[in-house]
Specification:
Shape: elongated
Radius of gyration: 18 Å
Oligomer: single chain
Order of helices and strands: HHHHHHHH
Number of helices: 8
Distance between the termini: 56 Å
Helix content: over 70%
Number of strands: 0
Length: 185
């Protein structure tokens, strides 16, 4: 059973769209399917958004805030850049719902210019954060180290969805530590 229509806010709709994305795909994210999922009438939608495009913009903003801004803020609370990088890799493995969303967004980049722009912006921000960590570690080639590390992170995101049952948190953390050690060579 969904929330009462009067208690739904715009972020509830954006979150519902984000959670439905892996199952419905970008093209399947319509007002009616989302209203059914939430358990409200589609009239509720129009209290908050004029159209689907506004909802999608809100959904991308939510994904960027939760999947990047909040993660970076959480990682910043750790004292050591190496610990931040290790934690980042482990988070990629643990966040199963977010992994499904990330995969769906990555898949949609090939078919939608807006998604490609958003994903590109988010990737650049994430990569810049990783470069900062390698710079703080004194890596001899921080951009190269960060690029390899981020590519591995994206790979872990993909593998976690497909084969999460055989990915081990300890092994993922060890690979992050090895990448950190190799960056100092």
């Amino acid at each position: 059973m969904g929330k009462q229509e009067g208690s739904l806010g715009p972020e509830d709709w954006a979150e519902a769209a984000l959670r439905a994305l892996p199952e419905l795909g970008l093209r399947g994210l319509g007002v009616e399917p989302l209203a059914r999922r939430i358990g409200v009438t589609k009239g509720s939608f129009y209290w908050h958004y004029r159209n689907r495009a506004e909802l999608l913009s809100a959904m991308w903003e939510l994904w960027e805030r939760v999947g990047t801004d909040q993660v970076i803020a959480e990682l910043a609370s750790l004292d050591e850049p190496g610990a931040r990088l290790e934690r980042l890799m482990v988070l990629a493995l643990r966040a199963t719902d977010e992994v499904a969303v990330e995969r769906a967004i990555l898949g949609a980049t090939a078919h939608d210019a807006q998604v490609a722009e958003v994903y590109g912006r988010v990737s650049r921000r994430r990569l810049a954060f990783v470069v900062e960590q390698f710079e703080a570690l004194g890596a001899s080639h921080p951009v190269d180290a960060a690029t390899s590390f981020y590519a591995e992170y994206v790979g872990v995101v993909q593998l976690a969805e497909l084969h999460g049952d055989w990915l081990d948190e300890g092994a993922v953390a060890r690979r992050a530590r090895r990448a950190i050690e190799a960056s100092r060579e």
